[in-house]
Predict the structure.
Amino acid sequence: MIGIIGGSGLTQYPGLIIDDSRDIETAFGMPSAPLKIGQLNGQQVVFLPRHGDQHQIAPHRVNYRANIDALKQLGVTHILAVAAVGGISQRYGPGTLAVPDQLIDYTHGREQSFFSDAFSPDKHIDFTHPYQPSVRTAILKVAQALSLNLVDGGTYGAVQGPRLETAAEIRRMARDGCDLVGMTGMPEAYLAKEAGIHYATLAVVANWAAGVTDAELSMTEIEQTLAAGMENVQAVIAGVIGLQSLR
């Protein structure tokens, strides 16, 4: 079964026919919101808003372990994670959709593993490829069929938040090779890997990152860009869910 994690701009999922809403307690606490189980494009899916039903949970306060564990408990085998990001490299301007293939973690103080309190040497999990290639390929295939301009690849830099970055921080990230900047990419991607869930991120570029242009960041403009991009995101997700290869 496919799980959808909604980020900024996708707290509710239009078109999802909800059959059930479940509060699932995990060994790591409660997830961000009740998990919505329903039908989308004729297939059963699970939807979870990362920041809560009212977007009330800051990025550094999200209980990523509980979110991933709850999805696993419901039998989710694949996750499509929607993320709002800032663009650093020139290919990733506002309104662009992207499917990153690498990431760099700049976060701190977040619980990174399900095994923090029950560690053993076999819990060093390979993370060479943080995003599942088969899920990325499915997203790209659907976007191509829909004639959507979606960028294949890129490095996602995961930052702490909730504040936006300084221009100097973005310059450092550019030197490090980051193309995108976001606040929720880690530890979500790694926890999915630990849980054995095939995970990929579908990123919507909401704005140029700090200092890339002379313009001051405006939350109003960011929200408008996200709203426009989410229609394409939902079209891609509907197509991916219909693929036999991911069932």
Remarks:
- The longest strand covers residues 198-208.
- The CA atoms of residues 142 and 239 lie 6 Å apart.
- Residues 219-241 form the longest helix (23 residues).
